[in-house]
Recover the amino acids of this structure.
């Protein structure tokens, strides 16, 4: 069963505009959510996380929003830059667990 | 180096051969994870170590997969009698143990791309 879903395989955005990447989950036992960025032939790089007790976390150009009632989170990148072009993975951790459950990823292309 | 180091970066093996993949975690990271990533998919959990203890191996797909971390630092993932469906990128990640309930994110290496012919 796919507990973390990223329903948009790809997204194309103009440089300087906002990029919004979405993620849905089904397991209410998840207590932390993370976003990773991945360039080709490299491993995923940690971007930002949010605890299930919060609804927003911001770090520079990156903001993650969590809507627990909808079991939905999103990553906002403002302003988008060409270097942001990569695959973005949403991941979640079960309460008191250790492993991460990942979505399938969304390819972001930022056009200059 | 400062990050998680994995070797080899690429490995080609014939079906039926045994392979060994190495992971050198970030110094001081107690937790170590192995993930398998198929093409076009997100990483999938294989196994977890805390120091030298393998606390979770629920994601290992078969008894052909074996992982160890004998001294609580470097880890090796071994696949015996490889099959074509084992072809994937194998990612290693490490992290600190979170204290006072504070979560510590996992940091990933660049992976080993395994191709079974």
């Amino acid at each position: 069963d796919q507990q973390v879903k990223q329903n948009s395989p790809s997204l194309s955005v103009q440089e300087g505009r906002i990029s919004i990447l979405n993620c849905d989950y089904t397991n209410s036992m998840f207590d932390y959510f993370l976003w990773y960025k991945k360039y080709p032939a490299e491993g995923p790089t940690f971007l930002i996380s949010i605890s299930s007790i919060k609804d927003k976390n911001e770090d520079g150009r990156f903001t993650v929003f969590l809507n627990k009632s909808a079991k939905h989170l999103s990553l906002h990148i403002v302003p988008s830059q060409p270097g942001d072009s990569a695959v973005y993975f949403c991941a979640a951790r079960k309460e008191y667990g250790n492993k991460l459950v990942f979505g399938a990823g969304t390819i972001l292309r930022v056009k200059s | 180096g400062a990050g998680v180091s994995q070797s080899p970066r690429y490995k080609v093996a014939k079906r039926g051969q045994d392979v060994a993949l190495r992971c050198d975690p970030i110094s001081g990271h107690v937790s170590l994870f192995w993930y398998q990533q198929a093409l076009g998919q997100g990483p999938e959990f294989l196994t977890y170590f805390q120091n030298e203890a393998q606390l979770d191996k629920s994601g290992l797909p078969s008894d052909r997969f074996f992982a160890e971390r004998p001294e609580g630092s470097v880890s090796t993932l071994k696949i015996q009698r490889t099959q074509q469906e084992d072809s994937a990128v194998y990612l290693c990640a490490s992290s600190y143990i979170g204290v006072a309930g504070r979560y510590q994110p996992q940091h990933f290496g660049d992976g080993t791309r395994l191709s079974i012919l």
In short: Chain A has no helices and eleven strands. The mean pLDDT of chain A is 95. The longest strand of chain A covers residues 30-38.
